[in-house]
Amino acid sequence: MGDVLTAEADLAGRYRAVRALSVALVAPLSDADASAQSMPDASPAKWHLAHTSWFFETFILAGRPGYRLFDDRFGFLFNSYYEAAGPRHARPARGLLTRPSLDDVLAYRHHVDAAIERWLPDFDAGARALVELGLNHEGQHQELLLTDILDLFARNPLEPAMYPPPARLAAHAPESRWRNHPGGIVEIGHAGTGFAFDCEGPRHQQLLRPHALAEALVSNADWQAFIAAGGYRDPALWLSDGWAWVQREGIAAPGHWRHDANDGWTSFGLAGRRPLDPAAPVTHISYYEADAFASWAGARLPTEAEWEAAAASEDAAGGNQLDRPGPVQPQGGSDLFGDCWQWTMSAFLPYPGFRPAAGAVGEYNGKFMNGQMVLKGASCATPRGTSRASVRNFFYPHMRWQFTGLRLAKDL
Amino acid sequence: MGDVLTAEADLAGRYRAVRALSVALVAPLSDADASAQSMPDASPAKWHLAHTSWFFETFILAGRPGYRLFDDRFGFLFNSYYEAAGPRHARPARGLLTRPSLDDVLAYRHHVDAAIERWLPDFDAGARALVELGLNHEGQHQELLLTDILDLFARNPLEPAMYPPPARLAAHAPESRWRNHPGGIVEIGHAGTGFAFDCEGPRHQQLLRPHALAEALVSNADWQAFIAAGGYRDPALWLSDGWAWVQREGIAAPGHWRHDANDGWTSFGLAGRRPLDPAAPVTHISYYEADAFASWAGARLPTEAEWEAAAASEDAAGGNQLDRPGPVQPQGGSDLFGDCWQWTMSAFLPYPGFRPAAGAVGEYNGKFMNGQMVLKGASCATPRGTSRASVRNFFYPHMRWQFTGLRLAKDL
Amino acid sequence: MGDVLTAEADLAGRYRAVRALSVALVAPLSDADASAQSMPDASPAKWHLAHTSWFFETFILAGRPGYRLFDDRFGFLFNSYYEAAGPRHARPARGLLTRPSLDDVLAYRHHVDAAIERWLPDFDAGARALVELGLNHEGQHQELLLTDILDLFARNPLEPAMYPPPARLAAHAPESRWRNHPGGIVEIGHAGTGFAFDCEGPRHQQLLRPHALAEALVSNADWQAFIAAGGYRDPALWLSDGWAWVQREGIAAPGHWRHDANDGWTSFGLAGRRPLDPAAPVTHISYYEADAFASWAGARLPTEAEWEAAAASEDAAGGNQLDRPGPVQPQGGSDLFGDCWQWTMSAFLPYPGFRPAAGAVGEYNGKFMNGQMVLKGASCATPRGTSRASVRNFFYPHMRWQFTGLRLAKDL
Amino acid sequence: MGDVLTAEADLAGRYRAVRALSVALVAPLSDADASAQSMPDASPAKWHLAHTSWFFETFILAGRPGYRLFDDRFGFLFNSYYEAAGPRHARPARGLLTRPSLDDVLAYRHHVDAAIERWLPDFDAGARALVELGLNHEGQHQELLLTDILDLFARNPLEPAMYPPPARLAAHAPESRWRNHPGGIVEIGHAGTGFAFDCEGPRHQQLLRPHALAEALVSNADWQAFIAAGGYRDPALWLSDGWAWVQREGIAAPGHWRHDANDGWTSFGLAGRRPLDPAAPVTHISYYEADAFASWAGARLPTEAEWEAAAASEDAAGGNQLDRPGPVQPQGGSDLFGDCWQWTMSAFLPYPGFRPAAGAVGEYNGKFMNGQMVLKGASCATPRGTSRASVRNFFYPHMRWQFTGLRLAKDL
């Protein structure tokens, strides 16, 4: 599969490629795997398959002459959070939907795909823009599908693997050098005519101070040093809410890490439980942990504007070359994209001049601009071609079931 | 299938029949259906299949020369609550065990069955008693398997049916006559040499007062009258904890009942949503509801001794004729067994002289003798031949996902 | 003060004595002490003073020609749980009622007392029975007032004392002898014409088996042996709900016990923190603990009928000689009354033929007949003269903020 | 009392004035009023009195030769959240501390005051800076003391008043005009040598866009229009977390508002329940409500930089003239200070270059820089002279027990 979203492929070709990828992702899963929900924040894989189809059906197909809803009860089941699109099944109860079956959901996808592909040549610009949005929306859910399955498998004492472990050469952790920036006014936010989510704009100026960003992501070896230094036991390093979280949840290491007397540190990923790779970037850390680590290191997290300015100054495309989800191959050059989402110290708030779109689609991002922190980059689970320097991912500060890591920054 | 547990069949034949019934019960279920857990009180169907096998493996096979554990991790996964048998997977997380798959669990059953059947001819009396206990234990889980699936399907907006609806003649609700008892000393508790659970004994004397029991179970029509009279809105009818439960949960009808302007009252069962049958016994009511109904009716619930005395005075066998789980056919004669479990006003406490058995098997019933109420009889989901007059079923007073109903009593 | 409730004193005299005792009890308390609520199960002392007055006002005075409500908002504030008496302030929020002040509440008491005393000579039998009920009701709240203050002070790191420690000779723990009973039919429940709460009747027959009761209460020294033997760490001794409670709450000793390296075991009471008296009866234990102790001791708890039969066979009056609340003086003879309430293995359920009274007063006991266990006797905080052999105190099995202990029983 | 904190008074004089104000504030309170805690976010008035004294004792006096701790148990009781100062009493249990009494706490204050006043002339610059910090800290607690009492009294069905209602002329709501700002680089943060909290600096540049701020605060009349337009029922106006909060808590009006058929809208304040003043600024609204109102009005909230730039452009001093806490007198000129704290759309995050101080005092603000929103200005309960343009107050977005309101902003 090529670079499905940013390449010159026509919209129909990209539609087919994105939709096929979702189906390919669930190939290793059983019907039960695809139906279970590990926690309220996660969704079943089957639900992701259905919800992404509901998105196309509801916002593009429904009401179009000649289109017949696949099942008029699915609107209730597979609406995620769009108040304007009507009532919906309670999120924490998605794992109880053992029916429709995975086969039923695949038939639903086929039904929607057939209608989109039939009518796509005749779509006007508005509908084509919604298809584009739907494809990028599906890219986000592809990543969530993988991270939600990881969370499910991590809670199973049998620790199943979704993929075989990659044959990989031992990575060498890059030396941690600082890249300086002189400060001044920069422009950030989406520019140009390509696709972007609403919250990536408007493009606008920000005033930066002189600062430096670390070239390398914080590694597992770095994090082992933090643990060994008592980082999880020193309240002075932590935000107040973070310290309460550490104590309440008994947190003492990144998500899925385990220490055995015989085996030392291991971590659990889509390829099962594996010895910890010291050179790999740390992942599955919360914002609280990222902030505490930075305090311990005498540094801080970057702002989103600093991060985006750094991304603009290099050929970002080279860092974003995943052919498929799964552990990323070490590669020369930047690791801005493709290893892990990187916590910033910026709260997810509207850019100056931001206005949500009218209608249900306007609920896409704006209503979440509260209490969450921005992450930049892309992870090993992000479909190739779907991230950009201007992408603003966001999660609550305690969440860490995504592939989340950090890069240090400091004032100059 | 004949009357598998009480007939003269030899132990090996009964073993095969009981074990086959469990597998037959899940035939209508998908892998996802069999893996989901609707609430902490319920368990996945797949878990019931595995746990009942774990029971035979742990208490009979494990440690026997020549027996190889099927998977040494299954002890952790499928122990229910036996502290003496070691640590175990958290009950509310059983629905996350999408692996082992249903096929894996069926292979586990085959492995255990082969070992039991090979060695059964050589078992001593102690081991044979444990096989007997295991079969009766599995009978209990067969009922739970059905009621847990019913609870799961009832929470699915698609309301799937497990079985086709039965072709049945309209039942006529029996007239509600009273059967008097003069009181005096009676004997209750298990007698004789057949199988009984530990809590059914010792047999002992109880002093009854003159009283009467209703011949008929309270029907759906009776319950509609209670609703129409405002029974769910009058605190004077309710126990204090019951009234708090009604208000907190917004209870206004038995479980799975729904009232639509067009369709009137319907209820949901293993055959899907169906019009309410006024003549059928009401089911899916809590102890709180049973007690409130009795207060409204100017009556009370029976004690377990009163109920058992009534059962002893008739040929109980005739009332317990289920060939298979599923809605019971109306039948002449007593409805003590086979329609629904009947709440009594007796708390589940030890009979005089009761002592739990030594070892893990002693955890079977004794440690639950607190806070729960006794139910007598058997329901439409109870495997034929597994109930007795002396059986003491028990649940907390707010629970109603079983087929639970009531019969009235009064003092004379 | 004499024996205010059981003596020959006329009703007016007893009214004055009981009402005066409540006021005397709060003398050591500040306005803040009297207003705070330590937990949802407890009430502020000031609230007890007001609620007991509300009882007289609502059920006897309100509506009587010439009576003016002291404050028409007090019905909302000081109704405890009487649904028939209208809506009420939420129980867990009683500690927020810093107004009315303690002085206001004392004025309220004076207003009610003046009206009762003026009209008492003219009251008919029904009203006199309600006065009697109100006085016994107030006796119950006097005990709760003391135990609620104890719970409040126990949660204060300063550990204030309400009373000075008694000058007492070291008690000698009585030898633990068994008193046998041959079994047979006995009568229990209230008899005669004196006052009793509704739930103490009807008097009725019960069939006892041959059994023995320990003459002595379980002592602190006995309990230290249970702790030393690992009683709190062995799940085999515990009810399932009890074991969950022990683990969830981290229970390892009776309420208010503390072990310091230097001081050994101490306990906290109304006279502050004191060295543990090995000979004194253990108190502040839950039903779960009482049951586990009995299992460990190879015994069981008595039934309420066994306990009452024992009380009937001795001169119960001698065991109930408290002149005032506070640590009881050791005394020769029975300790059935006056040291601590004694858990039985009987659930609090209606006696045969029990019917709640009509109207709000009928909510007194009947609606609590669910999920709670009966305690017999009386504690050091029970006002002298207010207990009887037929009294049925009741609490949920996890509760232990009262002076609760146990006496062992065994089958013969 | 003059303008105690900003005037030229020497430090000793200001110390006496601030400390005396705290004691004066509790004059209308009973011991019980001063001891109760209305919710975990609030503290008892007595606790505020003690904690502010503990601050001086712990950070300035403790360890100084010749100083004797008033009570060595008070460190445990009255530490708020300083991890470096040792363990502490659980925050939600502060209302259980009926001892020490209010008189004890006043004696504690006297003890601390005597020591500070004796040694103040000899204090070095570091100690004097800590006194300054302690006085400003106490100013913050004076406001909290008032708002916490308001919250307590609002939960009491008797609705007590702390102060008599002010004799005030009907205010005229100012016309809502916009004040434009051309944008560009501005400096914000504390400048100069006067006192400021750590989080107010470093002073730094921010880039503003052209925008306008409303001259007037949003009034009660404005809010009534929002309610009448269905603002609380339209999810499109709300942040996702805000909408969940509205539904979960049943929010339909600002805090303490009530609508009666006869009386119309009333609100509850320190002077009791009063008819709503349409011209007064709305208060007791959460960030969620402020944001929803702004969306409904087609505007937005200001950023903290925009607000501070506006304050810098006028003589802020004139707007901050409270002689005492209590409802503010309408005054000509700006209402930036003194009516209510004003929500901004800025998250409470560190200013560029911010570093917490070393030691326990460094826990003052930095560890709360997560999940909270900045408020600017000052309220009617803010002691005169304690606010500044650079002050950054902060609360979680659902909190509204403070005097919180809003001012609109828009892009140009």
Count of the separate structural domains of chain A: 2
By DSSP (H or I, 4+ residues per run), the number of helices of chain A equals: 10
Structural class label of chain A: alpha+beta
CATH overall fold name of the largest domain in chain A: paralog of FGE (formylglycine-generating enzyme)
| CATH architecture classification of the largest domain in chain A | Alpha-Beta Complex
Main pleated sheet of chain A: 4 strands, mixed
Tally of extended strands of chain A? Answer: 12
- Beta content of chain A comes to 5-15%
Radius of gyration of chain A (CA) equals 21 Å
Low-confidence stretches of chain A: 1-8, 315-333
Q: Report the end-to-end length of chain A measured between terminal Cα atoms.
A: 44 Å
Give an account of the 3D structure.
The structure is a homotetramer of 412-residue chains. The first copy, chain A, is an alpha+beta fold. Chain A has 2 domains: 154 residues; 234 residues, paralog of FGE (formylglycine-generating enzyme). The first copy, chain A, is built from 10 helices and 12 strands. In chain A, α3 runs antiparallel to α6. Chains in contact: A-B, A-D, B-C, C-D. At the C-D interface, α2 of C face α2 of D.
From the structure above, extract its key features.
homotetramer; 412 residues; alpha+beta; paralog of FGE (formylglycine-generating enzyme); 4-stranded mixed β-sheet; 10 helices
Summary, kept brief:
By secondary structure, chain A is an alpha+beta fold. Chain A is 31% helix and 13% strand.
